[in-house]
Write a structure and sequence with these properties.
Helix content: 25-40%
Order of helices and strands: EEHHEHEEEH
Strand content: 15-25%
Strand order of the largest sheet: 2-1-3
Shape: elongated
Number of strands: 6
Number of helices: 4
Radius of gyration: 25 Å
Structural class: alpha+beta
């Protein structure tokens, strides 16, 4: 089985690309022990003092921050689809490009509302959702719309 060695920085994040790879049969614990005993000893003195992470080569190598970003991107795409549907249903017309967003403004009577906005200025064009007293309720409404999308 192939194992990848990643450098772990002082801030706790690991490198994007593996520093090296090795082949070893056995569990994760035995692979780490093998790395410490046989491979790390060949590093120069400076690199022996650094922290490393050993991951199986056949498993996803994605870092936690990359997972979080991809999940956020997926949620934003779904939110955009919902707002696009509401824009089409309300037949929102504007001479400028239109985007959707959650706002708290005078135009919404100082309530939170998902709205159609002019892209460059974020000027209010039309409300797309009910009005909410707090942003948490507005986000829950959006999450419910996304659930109904499926």
């Amino acid at each position: 089985m192939e194992w990848h060695i990643y450098k772990v920085f002082k801030n706790g994040k690991r490198a994007k690309a593996p520093l090296s790879s090795f082949t070893h049969k056995g569990s994760n614990v035995s692979a780490v022990e093998y790395f410490e005993a046989n491979i790390k000893k060949n590093f120069n003195e400076k690199n022996r003092g650094l922290k490393y992470m050993v991951l199986r080569g056949d498993l996803p190598q994605e870092r936690e921050t990359e997972k979080n970003v991809s999940m956020a991107d997926e949620a934003l795409k779904k939110q955009t689809r919902i707002l696009g549907r509401f824009l089409a249903e309300h037949r929102v017309q504007s001479k400028h490009r239109v985007v959707g967003g959650l706002i708290f403004a005078k135009a919404t009577d100082w309530k939170w509302q998902w709205c159609a906005l002019e892209c460059a200025t974020n000027n209010y064009i039309a409300g797309l959702s009910p009005r909410f007293d707090n942003p948490t309720d507005a986000q829950e409404w959006m999450n419910q719309q996304i659930q109904n999308l499926k």
